[in-house]
Write a structure and sequence with these properties.
Layout (H helix, E strand, L loop, with lengths): L1 E5 L9 H15 L3 E5 L9 E5 L5 H10 L5 E4 L2 H4 L7 H9 L2 E4 L16 E3 L18 E6 L10 H7 L7 E6 L5 H13 L3 E5 L3 H10 L2 E4 L8 H8 L4 E4 L2 H7 L6 E2 L4 H13 L1 H13 L6 H15 L1
Parallel strand pairs: 1-2, 1-3, 3-4, 4-5, 5-6, 7-8, 7-10, 8-9, 10-11, 11-12
Helix pairs in contact: 1-12, 2-4, 5-10
Length: 316
């Protein structure tokens, strides 16, 4: 079967939507299907459409359904779709109406769908192959990793602001990997690094380098205001790195309600208190490590492959 994946992220982009599209393509090819990834639907020969971003791919969804009234059509919902302040957009709702299935990348995604669409929802968590070996931790400091592009939804400088609130004796050092998606954010990160001795902005780096910085850190901070399901959460879990994360649906749907490392959105003092506690309280850090270890199976590639296989069995 020919499967077309449409994503608004252009070829060569390191944006989450493009990465998710390429990962999905790999699993679908593993099921024996031919896959093409494109930024739009222009009548390409295809037996099935998988559209990332219900709102921004709405035109592709509508045109594919017009041309292929009975062909399988799947929408993958992003955090921008699900967690807009005003709720799902009219375009997103149209895509959901036309789709046969709606894929979420966290286990609570269906909770935020209108009741009429929840039966279409299937959760497929983005898996991460476990590393063969783990590098040694940073020794001269208490390493804190932020792995996120600099854009508003990520609140990317929150960890830097929290680090400023720590006492002089603290050894916390925030290493931030991720490109700036605007000149304004690049200027802010550069200025923060110059003024804040506890913050280093490493910029956009190769994926292997980002995972190395993460694995060498004592903690990962996920400070997103809105998130569909951050891939870096799975990367931290398989690298046995505890996570401090905002208490938002996208994080709750990956880490679970009972996870002990949450803080309120945008709350630098609360994050600073957790950073200090993790640095000083060995028992607290070990408790987070145990919780992370219990989540590892959730991000196993075999589990994701089985989820994609199950979805295709339903549709074909």
């Amino acid at each position: 079967m020919k499967v077309l994946i449409v994503t608004p992220a252009r070829r060569g982009s390191l944006a989450g939507n493009r990465v998710t599209a390429l990962r999905a393509a790999g699993f679908i090819r593993g099921l024996g299907h031919r896959v093409q990834v494109a930024t739009a639907y222009r009548g390409q020969p295809s037996d099935m459409l998988l559209a990332l971003h219900a709102e921004r791919s709405a035109d592709a969804v509508a045109e594919f359904r017009r041309r292929h009234p009975h062909a399988p059509l799947v929408v993958m919902l992003t955090g921008t779709d699900l967690y807009r302040p005003a709720g799902l957009s009219r375009a997103s709702l149209s895509s959901l109406h036309l789709a046969d299935r709606a894929v979420t990348i966290n286990l609570r995604g269906s909770d935020d769908l209108p009741t009429e669409f929840r039966s279409k929802a299937r959760a497929i968590l983005q898996s991460v192959p476990p590393p063969r070996t783990l590098p040694p931790k940073y020794r001269r400091d208490f390493g804190v990793c932020v792995s996120a592009h600099l854009r508003a939804e990520k609140d990317p400088l929150l960890a830097a602001r929290a680090a400023r609130l720590l006492p002089a004796a603290s050894r916390v050092l925030v290493r931030h990997v991720g490109g700036a998606l605007s000149p304004e954010y690049a200027a802010q990160a550069t200025a923060e690094a110059a003024a804040n001795a506890r913050y280093r902005w490493l910029g956009e780096v190769p994926r292997w380098r980002a995972r190395q910085v993460l694995a060498r850190s004592a903690l990962l901070v996920v400070s997103s205001r809105s998130e569909g399901g951050a891939h870096v959460v799975g990367e931290a879990v398989v690298a046995a790195v505890p996570i401090l994360a905002t208490r938002i649906p996208g994080n709750l749907g990956l880490l679970g309600e009972g996870y002990g490392g949450y803080f309120p959105v945008g709350d630098a003092p609360a994050l600073a208190a957790l950073l200090r506690r993790a640095e000083q309280d060995v028992g607290f850090l070990q408790r987070l490590q145990r919780q992370i270890a219990m989540l590892a199976e959730r991000f196993a590639p075999a589990r994701e492959a089985a989820a994609w296989a199950g979805l295709f069995r339903e549709l074909i």
